[in-house]
Amino acid sequence: MTDSIRDELAGTLLRRLEDGSFKVGIIGLGYVGLPLALAVARAGFAVVGFDINTTRVRELNQGHPGIKHIAAAELASAIEARRFSATDDFSRLDEPDGLVICVPTPLTRNREPDLSFVVRTAEAIAKQLRKGQIIVLESTTYPGTTEEVIKPILERTGLKSGVDFYLAFSPEREDPGNPHFETASIPKVVGGDDPEALRIAQAFYGKFIVKTVAVSSTATAEAVKLTENIFRSVNIALVNELKLIYAAMGIDVWEVIEAAKTKPFGYMPFYPGPGLGGHCIPIDPFYLSWKAREFDITARFIELAGEINTAMPRHVVDRLAQELDRRFGRGLNGAKILVIGVAYKKNVDDMRESPSLRLIELFEQRGASVDYHDPHVPVIPPTREHAALAGRRSVGIAAGVVAEYDALLIATDHDVVDYKALVAEAKLVVDTRNACARSGALADNVAKA
Asked: Is residue 223 part of a domain?
């Protein structure tokens, strides 16, 4: 292909972005893909959302987002304006000018990257790939994935990146339930497989994102995302370890953090918890430590942080068992435990990698009977690692119910929960989030973990 034809393909995409006729395809309509699709639709572009889950596709087309922090009114508005529709028909992947991949990148049981969703998506795109499309991967992964995994699959069609189609990586930066930031207000890092791909990708995101940040390659963009999440993982591991040390000394780590964060420079507060949850922090660091072994480098700091954070659920269970023994002279076997909160963080319905699921399993392994209460998660959905818990339902906490349990464990500090009422009725409350102290529910039956 001559330079003039290649320039014509890029020019066509850029013109369509300018006149609003650029059609967008979002593959994966979960916590990343759906907010992105609605942000694109809000900017005036037509979006086709692709998902393998036929039930989800049907519900989305009926106006039900299925994600608590996404307003049904916004989805309905996009559908009514004919700017959004969902489909499970992947033969339509040739329709959009730009395709954005937002599929999961979990870990295997051996903590190695599982790129099966990414690979299958790339193979589906390859079947329909046409000249003049741009494909952007947003799924978090190790440096080199776009170039070493996605690109070869697409180029097996005979079409070439930078010649017949364009390829880029732009890491998602979603923070479900964050009232201060949403998709359009979070700067977007973009790396292209070639200069034209970068130019087109920046033009695309620039239509609905407050700011784009260009980097030199797709691998650099992939590394940016991992760096952001490893930073959080390591610092959370640090405060989790400090929690154990200070507790042995009779010092409240939460009080320490509150005082330390008054320093206006050189310190940033991170908070301990019952374990890591969410789609990024528990997973992403291991993508880099796995890739580092290819270069004969052991990511000791990253792996140590992972070990500390992974050990937290077991520490919490041990702590609750100690309190039961100390206060009532009994162990976990036969105890009735109520877990408060199973979402991975406060005020959302997101269950991905939630430490509460591991906590429930550990309690039951030690003979306890476990219920949970979560106003945002009425039923535990199916998960890969905790399949046996799927279908369990949240119990109510009306007056008289809480007193039936031997202990309550606060695993997620949802704002809608009345912690003072819980403490007033419970025999024992073990708090992993400092929720009781923050709400002024200070009592002798509260212990921190």
From this structure: no
On whether both 249 and 140 belong to a single domain, the answer is: no
Location of structure tokens 């307003």: 71
| pTM score | 0.91
State how far the Cα of 414 lies from the Cα of 411, in Å rounded to an integer: 9
Instruction: Classify residue 115: in a domain, yes or no.
Output: yes
**Which two structure tokens, joined as six digits, stand for 145?**
């994935």
Domain that holds residue 70: 3-216
Interatomic CA distance for residues 30 and 50, integer angstroms:
10
Domain count, the chain: 2
Residue written as token pair 């809480």:
402
CA torsion angle 205 211 215 220 (round to 10): -80
Name the least confident of 2-16, 33-47, 354-368: 2-16
Tell whether 281 and 359 lie within a shared domain.
Answer: yes
Least confident of 40-49, 275-284, 350-359: 275-284
**Which CATH number does the domain housing residue 321 bear?**
3.40.50.720
* Number of residues assigned to the chain: 449
Give the active site residue among 34, 224, 234, 280.
280
How far apart are alpha carbons 408 and 338 in whole angstroms?
Answer: 5
366-418: pLDDT as tens digits: 999 999 999 999 999 998 889 999 999 999 998 899 999 999 999 999 999 99
Residues with Cβ within 8 Å of 441's Cβ and at least 6 positions away in sequence, in order, are: 419, 420, 422, 423, 424
Same domain? For 201 and 268 the reply is no
- The Cα-based distances of 432 to 37, 254, 268, 273, 412 in angstroms read 36, 10, 20, 5, 8
Residue 280 known to be catalytic: yes
What is the arrangement of strands in the sheet containing 23-27, beginning at the earlier edge strand? 84-87, 46-50, 23-27, 98-101, 134-137, 166-169, 188-192, 212-215
What is the spatial distance between Cα 32 and Cα 233, in angstroms, rounded to a whole number? 20
Instruction: Residue 79: name the closest of 109, 43, 56, 48 by CA.
Output: 48
Using the predicted structure, report yes or no on whether residue 1 has a pLDDT greater than 70: no
Domain-located, residue 237:
yes
Spatial separation of the C-alpha atoms in residues 363 and 324, rounded to whole Å:
13
Q: What is the mean pLDDT of residues 15-41?
A: 97
